[in-house]
Design brief:
It comes from Cardamine amara subsp. amara. By secondary structure, the chain is an alpha/beta fold. Helix content is 33%, strand content 12%.
Length: 466
């Protein structure tokens, strides 16, 4: 019951920021011969409170089924059509007329993804991307749809030359003048966002000996400090997003926003696909949804609330590649959930976060302190969380939470240093220790994290148990 009360508080505290929160959508892939009809899929989306969907084409059956649903839609001009769209404005105009103008606004198309991860496409379509984007935009203008519908192109993180630490983020030099800068200029001109596909799973799978699983799954962890800018990161997702922001800033495009067009975690994989389990997929997606719907941005861009599209709606049995490729789905083809995660703020109120699997490989060394499951640990305030979150957490801990806050009263042993961060840290830790260091008891709406070294604020000693 104590854990449940704490969880309810977390959600209530987070709800203060919902006016600034991000949005959750899903990718509706259809490389399968087992999926329900498009009409049934739309009903499923509505029943789950999912109000954004991205498809990888502009299939008429899907667009018709979405008509009148109030679900916002992103359609895709496939890579194989980039050449034609780039070379012939008439082709681009015909494509927009047939696949966009014919359905909008009854089907609420809000954006067009021109190609997908073009720079890693084996058919070498990079040179056609910018001309295709401009021709599609001209077509939207001709139908007076350019204000309603924005154009971008999803990038894989492989477009970056550097991504670690985040502050060193930069684009591959051979792409900068050829396509990156022209694309960012186009996005600026049209008021569009950069589409990015982000998969912490790939980074973890290939580096499980140095990346803590907790860090990859957005679970409670001490965080890692970026040696370049001094910012502390508590999850790999934020770090990867900020690497893209840093890469754009290096080219003087700080004003461009980001939309995450794909992210996810597989529920099943081959033997060498470390971390691909149902519990980890549930933990990643559940924690990410909570992270996005409660807002707060990233350490580098704290006000950059994100729209994130989970990959994917269904397991797709005809996809090629490793086992994981066929097991990213949130749902089985029979519409049953692969695992239980909520997709709305309301759903979060009654959802208990999943711990997921334990780390089965050596934890990271040199980049932060790993928490021992059996050793001592403390809960401290996240100084980057902002005054409102820290004060809200402090008020709860010392009030309803039942923390022993007498030592931080004026004249008491832990009053000095008289700072919000120091007082909140003491109160958070008192609450955390009283709850037996239970999972979820050191969160406070993202205002706290666990450390395995004794905190030090002046001469104040933090208790380790009650």
């Amino acid at each position: 019951m104590d854990f449940l009360k704490a969880l309810i508080f977390i959600v209530l505290l987070s709800s203060i920021y919902l006016s600034e929160a991000g949005s959750i959508g899903v990718n509706y892939g259809r490389i399968s011969d087992e999926l329900p009809s498009a009409f049934k899929v739309v009903q499923l989306l509505k029943s789950q409170g999912i109000n954004r969907v991205k498809i990888f084409d502009a299939d008429p059956a899907v667009l018709k089924a979405l008509s009148g649903s109030n679900i916002k839609v992103t359609v895709d001009l496939p890579n194989e059509l980039l050449f034609s769209a780039a070379k012939r404005a008439s082709f681009a105009a015909s494509w927009v007329k047939r696949n966009v103008a014919a359905y909008h606004p009854s089907t609420q198309i809000e954006s067009i993804a021109v190609g997908n991860e073009v720079f890693v496409d084996t058919h070498n379509t990079t040179n056609f991307l910018i001309p295709a984007m401009r021709n599609i935009h001209k077509a939207l203008v001709s139908f007076n749809l350019h204000s309603d519908i924005k154009i971008s192109s999803p990038l894989a993180l492989s477009a970056l030359q550097n991504s670690y630490p985040s502050s060193s983020g930069s684009f591959r030099p051979e792409l900068v003048d050829l396509v990156i800068k022209p694309m960012l200029e186009f996005l600026r001109e049209t008021g569009s966002r950069l589409m990015v596909n982000v998969y912490p799973f790939f980074a973890y799978e290939g580096n499980a000996d140095v990346i803590p699983l907790d860090y990859a799954l957005l679970r409670e962890n001490p965080g890692m400090v970026d040696s370049g800018n001094g910012l502390r990161y508590f999850n790999l997702f934020d770090a990867q997003i900020d690497a893209v922001f840093a890469a754009m800033s290096a080219l003087k495009f700080e004003d461009i926003e980001i939309v995450v067009t794909e992210t996810g975690w597989p529920s099943k994989g081959d033997e060498n696909e470390i971390g691909a389990t149902v519990r980890n997929a549930e933990s990643y997606n559940g924690n990410l949804i909570r992270r996005i719907l409660t807002g707060g941005g990233t350490p580098l861009r704290p006000k950059a609330d994100l729209t994130v599209y989970l990959f994917a709606l269904f397991n797709e049995n005809k996809k090629l590649g490793p086992t994981s490729e066929r097991n990213y789905g949130l749902f089985f083809p029979d519409e049953k959930k692969v695992y239980d995660v909520p997709f709305t703020t309301e759903g979060l109120k009654s959802h208990r976060p999943v711990i997921g699997d334990r780390q089965v490989t050596p934890p990271m060394t040199g980049g932060g302190v790993s928490k021992s499951l059996n050793g001592q640990s403390w809960c401290v305030a996240n100084g980057d969380a902002g005054k409102e979150r820290l004060q809200g957490g402090l008020d709860y801990a010392c009030g309803e939470g039942g923390a022993d806050c007498r030592p931080i009263q004026r004249g008491a042993t832990c009053y000095n240093p008289d700072t919000l961060e120091a007082h909140a840290s003491f109160a958070f830790n008192s609450y955390y220790q009283k709850k037996g260091r239970a999972g979820g008891s050191c969160y406070f709406g993202g205002a706290a994290y666990v450390v395995s070294q004794p905190p030090k604020y002046g001469r104040c000693e933090f208790p380790t148990g009650y």
